[in-house]
Amino acid sequence: MKFSDRAMNVEPSATVKVSNTAKAMIRKGIDVINLGIGEPDFTTPQLIADAAIKAIKSGKTSFYTPASGLPQLKEAIAERIKKDYGVIYPIDQISVTNGAKMALYVLMQALVDPGVEVLLPRPSWVSYKQQVLLAGGKPVIVETGDDFKITTDGLDDAVNHNTKVLVINSPQNPTGTIYSKEELEAIGNWAVLHNVILIADDIYGKLVYNQNQFYSLVQINDRIAASTILVNGVSKAYSMTGWRIGYVAGAPELISKVNSILSHTTGNPATVSQYAAIAALESDQSEVETMRQAFEQRLNTIYPLVEKIPGFKLRAKPEGAFYLFPDVSAAIQLAGVQSSGELVDRLLQEAHVAVVDGAAFGMPGYLRMSYATSLEDLSTAVERITAFMNQFL
Ligand code: PLP
């Protein structure tokens, strides 16, 4: 069979791949600790699950909703954005998607033509680059400094007349970095000046630790907000990865195009999941806070332990999301392996700990370790990695 160039060029998601391998090993009875995964380990809060059960029992399953989502859900999203950010979006400026991943995919489809360039920080989430390529566009990497953040100097180096979009993810996967208000203002003003559309991927916006402050690009000022497309979802904050609800908020004419694409691709996100998302967004957010505190405790416990693993070096302490991103170049040397990818394979096969190769995020020589798992498993995982590395000392 001859495949399209698109299909030939797309790479499978490294995070999904490592996680599937770990899950397959666990199914075979191997005691693997999975730090490869980007999903909270908590069960979805009961009040959210109950809303879905009620929707099923009352027969809200045998109809399509509008492709862009239930009006009640859009209202709940608009209300949440207003409460969290103080920014108002009428519901014709909101579209519900099958996870934030679909929101980002459909945006690339709506904005990117062949030859169009999309600026992506290095490191950044695995799917941005592939989604740009799937749209026929050109991903252009913007280098970051020691703090893993881009600056307007880096943007000046990357911009040209084909540049159309810049993706900002704060708190950032895989580093946990948060851009300050001033940094967002500088980046936002730069984008306005260069006529570059900003995509703010705020999926980790509620997972912020140790008194750090999160701001969304849409909160900085009206001009920046008008140049920004907001992407978010319920997966990470409400432990709802399996429900697949995300959303995009932006200008009415953009949302209209997004909706047309969705109407021919996904149709609507699962009706039951939409009712669950309404309950999540309308809830008093106390469950989010409980989970946030648990992540914070895990970060504060695990960070100093990972720092002590031979050959692992952490830069600034993560401020949000639920990942550590150690530089393992010294560990690669110590272990006598060729790459971070080989180290990941050895850790999985020999230490039975799954982590993701930094190369998947554009940074070979690094690993991404998720701390969205119990403190007990985290401690055991660090012990195993430490024991693995100790054999080379
Ligand atoms: N954006 C980032 C930075 C992510 O890490 C993820 C998930 O890992 C997503 C978007 C997609 O989330 P979902 O499709 O579950 O809403």
UniProtKB/TrEMBL annotation:
Family under the similarity heading: Belongs to the class-I pyridoxal-phosphate-dependent aminotransferase family.
GO BP term, example: amino acid metabolic process
UniProt keywords, alphabetically: Aminotransferase, Pyridoxal phosphate, Transferase
Segments forming a coiled coil: none
Family matches, as Pfam families: Aminotran_1_2
Molecular function GO labels: pyridoxal phosphate binding; transaminase activity
Entry's EC annotation: 2.6.1.-
Top-level taxon: Bacteria
Location of the Aminotransferase class I/classII large domain: 31-385
Cofactor: pyridoxal 5'-phosphate
UniProt protein name: Aminotransferase
InterPro entries: Aminotransferase_I/II_large (IPR004839), AspAT/PAT-like (IPR050596), NHTrfase_class1_PyrdxlP-BS (IPR004838), PyrdxlP-dep_Trfase (IPR015424), PyrdxlP-dep_Trfase_major (IPR015421), PyrdxlP-dep_Trfase_small (IPR015422)
